[in-house]
Design a protein that fits this description.
This protein has 19 helices and 21 strands. The protein is an alpha+beta fold and about 625 residues long. The strands form 5 sheets. Strands 5-4-8-2-1-11-13 form a 7-stranded mixed sheet, with no helix packed on it. A hairpin with a 4-residue loop joins strand 18 and strand 19.
Length: about 625
């Protein structure tokens, strides 16, 4: 290993060493409004970083990925160097246009890692970086066979959002920087590799897999999974990957996936990514889903056995318009990815399941937003849609504000201009900004030009500054029709007044009605009340992760110990932060710190590094 470091102050003075805006030579935005991306140290705004050729091997024994990343770069501005993001990578050597060159790994910057500086020449350049990841790379989760569903082979998957691609590939790691890529990946012969690219549908004998992504994407949408994986088609352009013993269950659960794609297309235009497949990951996956192009990564917690939780797939599918096709320029503009996607997801759900079903999703989302604002504080600037994450981990902004407040803002616009007009606006927005990025200010300018068009009365009704640059939930926030939840509320009140739970009219309830029923119970219930509910509805044995998690939180608060064994089983198998954080938090807040510490010590290794970072702060 040969590391050569240099630093010439005058050199950096001439060419700059601050973070750059995300304006990029591959057209990312047709607006003159650009944001400085404070979460990348790359200088990709001043270069044309066009394509990545990746040749890597996956080593399960060492928990490392090693290989060569070759970047194709054009240098019209005559820069003397290219700067890329890294985090925890060991750089063995660098070649520029085929020749070994000196390179520099700069001092670490909090949250951002170390910039890799490589000298280049005018014109076309090709830089080849031979590197190796750390066993503790933040983007990678290495699973033993025991931590998988089938418990036969190890498993690896990546989670690159928000700025973790740099921990497994030296890259310009900002959402406003797009490139194409091709990859050759060597894995153990008994395993299969998949990426956010054109994918195989069966294992081969060599353990070598080739991938192509010929549409430009940002680094956070690069993804890799390696494991004992099988495939089953849903229709001619959709299908499911999963461990073999999970495959049939997953395919049954997601049988309507092709219909979802068609429904989405009918709303906002053609699906532009070719295939849409879903990989059901092992239980440690820390989030619900990740919208990697062509291949959504999804939590197994959506496999409930009754297709009641598949609206998560509608969300990840919608990202192929809002997020993947039109991308937030910086993480300060995260709501442009997630707020649009939640709105779109609920329109897909309404088209497939009816308005009253979507209304329940809107109301549960509103409840989540109220909870988030209360937790953050209703004057906290983190409750703005437009964020300021300077000096912070961008994951600090990945909360329900971007999702639910953003979606509610779009719904407010729809209500005020009419659905037909708003749908036409959104379709034009996706078409005109396809494969580009946009920031909040550019979107508001586009909104004014194409939809508001100087209508002062409409502007007054929308209160845009309060939504985008103001805290909390604005006074004109719309609420969904709560007809179905009113029925649930009436049944809950009967229970609170002593009615036997078995006598309640619950036969036709969906998961969403049950969630509303449990969310609004007094806290804590008595042990007797918990026991009566459990006898009637078997919540402790529920296979629905949303219901089970909420029930276990209630059990902790009520000290309903008959649920604790199943709760431990849940915590041992589920790594989704949405579920495990509330459970450990509730234990720590209700005098059950020894239980929390004992369980966390036992199961911490099952959780993804990102979940561990969060839980380490909770259980201490």
């Amino acid at each position: 290993m040969k590391l050569l470091f240099f630093c010439v102050p005058a050199f950096f003075l001439i060419y700059g060493c601050t973070s750059f805006s995300s304006k990029h030579s591959t057209p990312l935005s047709d607006s003159s409004i650009f944001s400085r991306d404070i979460h990348t140290q790359s200088n990709a705004d001043s270069l044309q970083i066009e394509h990545l050729d990746l040749d890597i091997s996956v080593n399960f024994a060492e928990h490392t990925i090693a290989g060569v990343a070759i970047w194709k770069i054009k240098n019209p501005n005559h820069l003397k160097f290219v700067r890329l993001d890294t985090d925890g990578l060991t750089i063995d050597s660098v070649r520029s246009n085929g020749k070994p060159v000196l390179f520099s790994l700069e001092k670490p910057v909090a949250h951002l890692g170390r910039a890799l500086t490589i000298p280049i020449h005018d014109g076309n350049n090709e830089v080849a970086i031979t590197y190796k990841t750390s066993p503790n790379a933040r983007a990678l989760q290495w699973l033993t066979p025991q931590q998988t569903h089938d418990k036969k082979f190890p498993f690896l998957y990546t989670q690159s959002e928000s700025i973790y691609a740099r921990s497994w590939v030296p890259a310009p790691d900002g959402p406003g920087i797009r490139f194409t890529y091709a990859a050759r990946v060597k894995v153990p012969n008994e395993l299969m590799a998949l990426m956010s690219a054109e994918n195989p549908q069966q294992k081969n004998d060599s353990g070598i897999y080739h991938f192509t992504m010929n549409m430009p994407i940002p680094a956070y949408l690069m993804a890799l999974a390696v494991g004992d994986i099988a495939f089953k088609a849903i229709d001619n352009r959709t299908g499911v990957y999963a461990e073999p013993q999970m495959l049939d269950k997953a395919a049954w659960e997601l049988v309507d996936m092709g219909k979802m794609v068609s429904s989405a297309e009918s709303l906002y235009g053609s699906y532009r990514w070719g295939r849409y497949d879903v990989l059901i990951l092992p239980p440690g996956f820390p989030i619900g889903g990740m919208e990697n192009p062509k291949l959504t990564f999804a939590t197994p917690t959506i496999i409930a056995g009754d297709r009641s939780l598949v609206n998560l797939i509608a969300h990840e599918l919608a990202h192929n318009w809002s997020g993947n096709l039109v991308t937030n320029e910086t993480w300060n503009d995260f709501w442009l990815n997630e707020g649009f996607t939640v709105y779109f997801e609920r329109r897909i759900s309404e088209a497939m399941n009816g308005k009253s079903y979507a209304d329940m999703l809107w109301e549960l989302g509103y409840q989540d937003l109220v909870t988030e604002v209360k937790a953050l504080g209703d004057t906290n600037k983190d409750t703005h849609l437009k964020l300021n994450l300077a000096g912070r981990d961008p994951d600090d902004g990945l909360n329900d504000i971007a999702y639910e407040k953003g979606a509610l803002f779009l719904r407010l616009i729809e209500i005020n201009v009419g659905r037909k007009r708003f749908d036409a606006f959104l379709r034009q927005y996706f078409d005109s900004h396809a494969f580009k990025t946009i920031n909040t200010e550019a979107f508001l300018q586009y909104l004014n030009e194409k939809l508001i068009q100087g209508d002062s009365e409409l502007s007054k009704k929308l209160q845009i500054p309060a939504w985008v640059y103001g805290p909390g939930i604005p006074s004109n926030a719309p609420r969904a029709d709560r007809e179905r939840f009113s029925i649930v509320d009436a049944e809950r009140l009967k229970f609170e007044k002593g009615t036997d739970p078995a006598a309640l009219a619950t036969a036709q309830w969906t998961t969403h009605e049950w969630l509303h029923f449990l969310r609004n119970m007094p806290k804590p219930l008595t042990v007797a009340q918990m026991s009566n509910l459990d006898q009637a509805f078997h919540f402790t044995q529920s296979h629905n992760s949303e219901i089970a998690d909420l029930w276990f939180v209630m059990a902790i608060a009520a000290n309903y110990t008959p649920a604790f064994k199943e709760m431990e089983q849940f915590l041992s198998q589920v790594g989704r932060r949405k579920f495990i954080e509330p459970l450990y938090t509730e234990m720590m807040n209700t005098g059950k710190e020894p239980l929390a510490k004992s369980l966390y010590q036992k199961y911490r290794s099952n959780y993804h590094p990102l979940a561990q970072m969060t839980l380490d702060k909770i259980v201490h």
